[in-house]
């Protein structure tokens, strides 16, 4: 059981979490408001990922458990996409190879844009 300390907060993904509430981090809002207004299309870009990171290698990991399949796509050791699906009753009773193959084919199907470049 987790006991929340009084008067403490946790900063998480642009939010401030406390025992009483969850609010947006105002520092993030101010930073966004202070961004210069773009004049050209090229000025509107995501600055968190530079071009060398964008073109670096991605890796995928798939698995099939007794009741579901999942896929995690990672780049430089960080997950960038996730997929999971519950298996039908029939597929849950199938040989281990069938759900594993479904996991692989679903992963390739869902991540096609990453694989083709």
Percent helix range: 25-40%
**Separation, N- and C-terminal Cα atoms:** 46 Å
What is the CATH architecture descriptor of the largest domain? Roll
Number of self-contained structural domains: 2
CATH fold-level name of the largest domain: Ubiquitin-like (UB roll)
- Mind telling me the CATH class of the largest domain? Alpha Beta
Kindly report the oligomeric state of this protein: single chain
* Mean pLDDT rating: 80
Total helix count? 5
* H/E element order: EEEHHEEEHHH
InterPro entries: DNA/RNA_pol_sf (IPR043502), RT_RNaseH (IPR041373), Viral_Replic_Matur_Polypro (IPR051320)
Domain Reverse transcriptase RNase H-like: 61-117
Keywords: Aspartyl protease, Endonuclease, Hydrolase, Nuclease, Nucleotidyltransferase, Protease, RNA-directed DNA polymerase, Transferase
Pfam family, one: RT_RNaseH
């Amino acid at each position: 059981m987790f006991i929340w300390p009084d008067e403490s907060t946790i900063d998480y993904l642009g939010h401030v979490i406390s025992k009483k509430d969850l609010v947006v981090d105002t520092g993030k809002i101010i930073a966004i408001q202070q961004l210069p207004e773009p004049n050209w299309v090229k000025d509107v870009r995501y600055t968190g990922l530079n071009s060398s990171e964008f073109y670096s290698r991605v890796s995928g990991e798939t698995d099939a458990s007794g009741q579901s399949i999942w896929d995690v796509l990672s780049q430089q050791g960080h997950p960038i996409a996730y997929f999971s699906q519950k298996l039908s009753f029939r597929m849950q009773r199938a040989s281990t190879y069938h759900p594993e193959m479904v996991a692989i084919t679903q992963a390739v199907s869902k991540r096609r844009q990453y694989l083709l470049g």
